[in-house]
Structure formats: structure tokens, C-alpha cells
Amino acid sequence: MIDTTKGFTLTREIDATPEELWTAWTDPDELAHWWHPRGVTTPRDSVTVDLRVGGAYTYTMVNDSTGDEYPTGGVYREIVPTERLVFTWGNPDDDPDDAPVVTVTFESLGELTLMTFQLQGVDGTPGDESFYDGWVSALDVLVEHAQGPHVFG
């Protein structure tokens, strides 16, 4: 089992609706646009989503400079459309019971949405050039995607 005392939380106030952010987190076409830190891309053909409790997702991030590939995946544990998404995160072959867990919530603030991202099971601190910095960068890419000249869905 994972050590839930390890982890971190990130928040963003985003100029998008909870519905738009939900789509960004659950639609394979949308995920390919942002589910990676800067300097990395996620080819659309690498993204699969079986959006149901117990369903799996996979994607592969590719380093733009080196071509190194980072297969990633997990299993959905809780799905409350436009409000809450909980899933394991790591290597697609990992035992889901031993994988870190991501919880993402969306709360309408009127014209903005408060998105809270929590990762449990791994340490992360600013400047680690690993989990924390990677997710900060990926969420920055998400914000740019959500607030850019884009139509969801």
C-alpha cells in the first residue's frame, strides 16, 4: 500500500468552467494537448481512457529533445462528473494498490473554477525536478490550454 503521509497539493484558479476542466481531464483528445510538462509531448494515439470506476487509462509522454518515452497509466477509483476525479498514477504495469493516487476537484467560483490537485504516495517539493515540478509544469500547460483560443469537446 502507498504511504499517504507523503504527497503534495497544488491549486489553480482557472478561467474555465468545471465542465470544461472535467473534459480536459477525461477526454483523450484533450488530454493529449496538456498531460505532460513543458518540453514533453503526449501523442494522441498513446492516450486511452476507460472512464469508469475500475477502468484504466494510459498515455505515453515523449521528451521533445531526446525522444525518451515515459509510459504512464493507472486506474480510476472515484468519478463524480464535473466535481471529483480520483485515480492511481504511475507505470501502467504497476499494481494499482501500490501506485500513487491523484485526486482532482473542481469548485465553481463564479467566473473562475478552483481546481485542487492532490498527489498522495510520493514526496514532492518545489525544485525537485521530479514529481512536484513535473506536475506544476503540466498544470501550467493545462491552464494555458484551458484559457487559450480553444473549444472543448
TrEMBL record:
It comes from the Bacteria. InterPro entries: ASHA1/2-like_C, START-like_dom_sf. Gene3D superfamilies: 3.30.530.20. It holds the Pfam family AHSA1. Residues 15-145 form the Activator of Hsp90 ATPase homologue 1/2-like C-terminal domain. Belongs to the AHA1 family. This is SRPBCC domain-containing protein.
